[in-house]
Amino acid sequence: MNSFASTGLIVGIMVGLIIVVFVLKYINRDNKVKTDYDERQKAVRGRSYMFGFYATVITCCIMLVLNATDEGIIHVLGMNAFFLPILIGIVVQISHAIFNDSYVGLNNNMTRFMCVMSFISIFNIVFGIMPIVKEGLIKDGKLCPSFINLEVGVMFIIICIEMVIKKVIDKKAEAE
After folding, report:
1. Residue 44 to residue 96: CA distance in whole angstroms
2. Contact 153, 125 (CB under 8 A)
3. 81 or 60, which is more confident?
4. How far apart are alpha carbons 44 and 48 in whole angstroms?
5. Residue 142 has what pLDDT?
6. Which of 142, 28, 21, 141 lies closest to 78, judged by CA?
7. Which residues are paired to 97 by β-bridges?
8. What counts of helices (H) and strands (E) characterise the chain?
9. Could you tell me whether strands 142-143 and 138-139 are parallel, antiparallel, or unpaired per DSSP bridges?
10. Is the pLDDT of residue 95 over 60?
């Protein structure tokens, strides 16, 4: 990677972190960056992180075994080989937190939260599809790096669907 590309990556990460701060302030009712959780939520979130960690480790082990038996699976995945275990761990962590009522904080504005999640999903899917349409899914025997955007977009869609399912489950429980 040349120095211009690495400088662009660093600037992109810095701008992304600044945007995250503003988004967190936007989705919280009290305009704080930090989301507030009660003691029970904090305990459940700890277990959620543990499950996410184990899912990441297990996914890495599976990928290592696949690479040992099939020369090149890691090569074909390209950068996705590094991000796929992380994204699977994140989905497991967030899924556990959602279905145990510890994903949404006490000071979150759910309408804003779901709007931001939907925007992130659409943004990543669009920016994942555009390069694939222009250049194809596989380039030089590897998945194109923009496939990561598709994976992130799908991850956020899964999270949104899980949150809707959880809301339906909670409404049914309240009705009974």
Report:
1. 8
2. yes
3. 60
4. 6
5. 81
6. 142
7. none
8. 6, 2
9. antiparallel
10. yes
How many other β-carbons are positioned within 10 Å of the β-carbon of residue 112? 14
Cβ 37 vs Cβ 106: under 8 Å:
yes
Q: Which residues are CB-contacts of 41 (< 8 A; sequence separation ≥ 6)?
A: 101, 102, 105, 106
| Cβ atoms of 160 and 114 closer than 8 Å | yes
Q: Which of 93, 95, 94 is nearest to 52 (CA)?
A: 93
Q: Which two tokens stand for residue 47?
A: 């277990």
Look at residues 143, 153, 122 and name the one whose alpha carbon lies nearest to residue 79: 143
The encoded tokens of residue 161 equal 């669907």
Q: Give the closest residue to 125 by CA, choosing from 155, 146, 149.
A: 149
Residue 160 has which token pair?
């949104």
| CA quadruple 110, 148, 59, 160: dihedral, nearest 10 | 20
Q: Which of 102, 86, 108 is nearest to 45 (CA)?
A: 102
User: So what's the pLDDT on residue 132?
Assistant: 86
Round the CA-based radius of gyration of the chain to a whole number and report it.
19
Tokens representing residue 97 in the block: 């937190």
Structure tokens at 83: 């991000």
